[in-house]
Specification:
Layout: E1 2-7, H1 15-30, E2 33-37, H2 41-45, E3 49-52, H3 83-92, E4 97-102, H4 104-117, E5 121-125, H5 141-162, E6 165-170, H6 177-186, E7 190-192, H7 200-212, E8 218-222, H8 250-262, E9 266-270, H9 282-300, E10 306-311, E11 314-319, H10 320-324, H11 332-339
Helix pairs in contact: 1-9, 5-6, 7-8
Length: 343
Amino acid sequence: MKIGILTSGGDCPGLNAVIRGMVLKGVISYDTEFVGFRNGWRGVVEEDLMPIVRHDVRGLAKQGGTILGSSRTNPFEGEGGGPEKIQAMLDRNGIDAIVAIGGEGTLTAARRLYDEGGIKVIGVPKTIDNDLAATDYSFGFDTAVQIATEAIDRLRTTADSHGRCMVLEVMGRHVGWIALHSGMAGGAHAILIPEQPQTIEQITEWVESVRDRGRAPLVVVAEGFKFEGMEEAHSHKGLDAFNRPRLGGIAELLAPMIEERTGIESRATVLGHIQRGGEPTAFDRVLATRLGMAAVDAAYNDAWGSMVTLRGTSIATVSIADAVGTLNQVPQARYDEAKILFG
């Protein structure tokens, strides 16, 4: 079998570990041949590919980013887009199947290619946001949380020095997992997530409670957080290739509001793409490697249209449709647990 690999959407630590796991498993267990599509679905629609052999993945598990490059290209658009043209390209190059490593947009496109064109595709869940249903964790999330936690630790020392309120904005799109985990790990005094709208009055109450105890308040806010009454998350950066709003900037709105209402000098820090960079944590390296190996097994089991997933500590296979139909949101119990620590 000849398998084409692509990494699509936002990059994250662990992508290279998936590629390495796939190639080693395929070569050792099945004598598989691999090619990589450059820059995600763009490489598929533009027929831009490269061979990947065992030597190419040596020492790759610890390397951040992706050796294949990534993009947010929609495979149904462009001169070479659509199921029929993509299948013709695969046939020309003797490629039997595609393993698509990506998040919600990437996997939705992969499933649609399978449903509408019968293209043999396997999905591997990739997102720092941990927002994909049908998997307990996705690789990249643990690294993003670690980076955000380190930022909280650093902001705390400068906040204490000046008696300021620090507002740290983290990624997550429409779920609050990064904010929740990093906020708890870093001892944040308030954690604001999309699943739990709050009023500015409640937020300032938490902040003032911290100030009254002689501490410098630290607030972690997810980029998709909404105040009560807001219908959509704050976005001023337009749409991506899948017509989803590019979120970000809520901390820069929140910090002045806190300062105005409390009189506490407040500063906003938007962590942004730092959360996507650098070397993956040990947890993400192991998870990514296991998912890559399982994706090859899924291909040889003809599990087309499916996605490999983490269930507890075991790797399983589920339909991609089950993964992209709903978001993996922070449940009420988890937020109530963290909320006890606020203020």
